Amino acid sequence: MGLRIGVARGVLTPPRGSYLIGYGDRLLGARGVRDPLFATALVADDGAGGRLALVSLDLLCLHEDVVARIRAGITTATGIPGEAVLLACSHTHAGPIGWTGPRSTPWRRRAMAHRVAAVVDAVARAARDTAPATLHRGRGESGVAINRREAQADGRIEIGENPEGFVDRDLDVLQLRTDDGRVGATVVFFACHPAVLSPRNRRVTAEWPGVMRSRVENATGAPCLFVQGATGNLNPRHGWGDDDLEAMERIGDEVADGVLAVLRDGLAETPAVPLAAACTEVGLPIVLRRTERGRVEPWYRTGARKLGVPSPLIALLVRYAYPWRPRHVARGDDAEMPLALQALRLGDVGITALGAETFAEIGAELKAKGIAPTTLFAGYANGMIGYLPTAQAHAEGGYEVDEAPLAYRMSGTFAPEAADHATRASLELLAGLYRV
After folding, report:
1. 436 vs 103, residue with greater confidence
2. In this structure, are residues 280 and 429 in contact, taking their beta carbons and an 8 Å threshold?
């Protein structure tokens, strides 16, 4: 039993005029492309029936319907089971939407079909051309991110800068090397919003992760995959202004410098087999908003009340700015939102993945408590339910807790205990892979 890997890349760049998702107040289409968007696929095979596919996507996020389509296509093309396919989005705010539905235009549906096909094809090509490899790991850190939940004088929490807030600075690097010593692929795990560019930007870009990736690939001569971490409450250390492009380059270069420093310091070879994977869902409780008469207040009426505009206008704007179909499950007088969980095992390296904008404290807890000798975290993976805040953040309120759920048509907010539910279930799912 020995590890074999294959790597391939597909293009996801949308055409000029495509709507760029990520900001609610950017309503015009892309007027150009600054740099291409990619799907970079790493396929691993342990020679004993274990196979995995890790795909790094230059996208904001993917809807669960699209995830199912991609996984089905990969299984048909390669035989890799859907639960063993990790679709990790970088969360760039300058890429196309990750869902199309019945109300989507034919043009958008064709564009999505092209992206689905590009991902499936990249995995299929990676699976066809594998070579023996070893796994190496290392950890550094980077200080480009800052906690963004800034307390105001009146106690409100706004998006800004909170130098005292928690930040996960871990910069984790995995590298796959072939038997002749060449680098097959480098995988970078780090948490920082790719939101250096403001809503004024209308050019397609992979943002700072794309800058980092290019630097690492130039240095190693091999593909680099970026896996976004728990960055729900972390932003880049940069305020929007006229120097956004320069800041994007600088931040990407800083992260690349950190990655290259880890590589220079030397990586430790680590057991890479066996390979295993598991997926499940956990229902996260929703605290419904109710009127004085005890009736549930629809999400669009909540938005209208908060902004002081007619509710039909809110519904129209949300449908345009964030076309999405959430999946709520009624539980008596309450409701739940199913969260996609995944765990992967690459020998001594375990990966937990959540389909949410997870707060940094949660990702750090999963890495610290994971049963694997090395546990890493992937956010924005295999779907999206919105922000997953901590219980403390729920007590404080703010955009991620109170306002963002409206984009997911939630007539309420996640309960304070939702993060604990997700954490326990994730740790148990990963532990199951190491009990075998």
Report:
1. 103
2. yes
Q: What is the pLDDT of residues 185-240, one digit of tens each?
A: 999 999 999 999 999 999 999 999 999 999 999 999 999 999 999 999 999 999 99
pLDDT, tens only, 110-145: 999 999 999 999 999 999 999 999 999 999 999 999
Question: How many other β-carbons are positioned within 10 Å of the β-carbon of residue 102?
Answer: 6
Q: Tell me if the pTM is above 0.85.
A: yes
Q: What is the 3-state secondary structure (H, E, C) of the chain?
A: CCCEEEEEEEECCCCCCCECECCCCCCCECCEECCCCEEEEEEEECCCCCEEEEEEECCCCCCHHHHHHHHHHHHHHHCCCHHHEEEEECCCCCECCCCCCCCCCHHHHHHHHHHHHHHHHHHHHHHHCCEEEEEEEEEEECCCEEECEEECCCCCEEECCCCCCCCCCEEEEEEEEECCCCEEEEEEEECCCCCCCCCCCCEECCHHHHHHHHHHHHHHCCCEEEEECCCCCEEECCCCCCCHHHHHHHHHHHHHHHHHHHHHHCCEEECCCCEEEEEEEEEEEEEECECCCCCECCHHHHHHHHHCCCHHHHHHHHHHHCCCCCCCEEECCEEEEEEEEEEEEECCEEEEEECCEECHHHHHHHHHHCCCCEEEEECCECCCCCEECCHHHHHHCCHHHHHHHHHHCCCEEECCCHHHHHHHHHHHHHHHHHHC
**Whole-number Å distance between alpha carbons of 278 and 427:** 12
- In this prediction, residue 320 carries a pLDDT of 81
Would you give the end-to-end CA distance of the chain in angstroms? Answer: 16
Spatial separation of the C-alpha atoms in residues 51 and 383, rounded to whole Å = 21
As a whole number, mean pLDDT of residues 160-179 equals 97
Residues 389-416: pLDDT tens digits? 999 999 999 999 999 999 999 999 999 9
Residues in a beta bridge with 38? 11
Domain boundaries, the chain: 4-274
CA distances from 31 to 17, 39, 201 (A): 6, 22, 9
What pLDDT does residue 436 have? 65
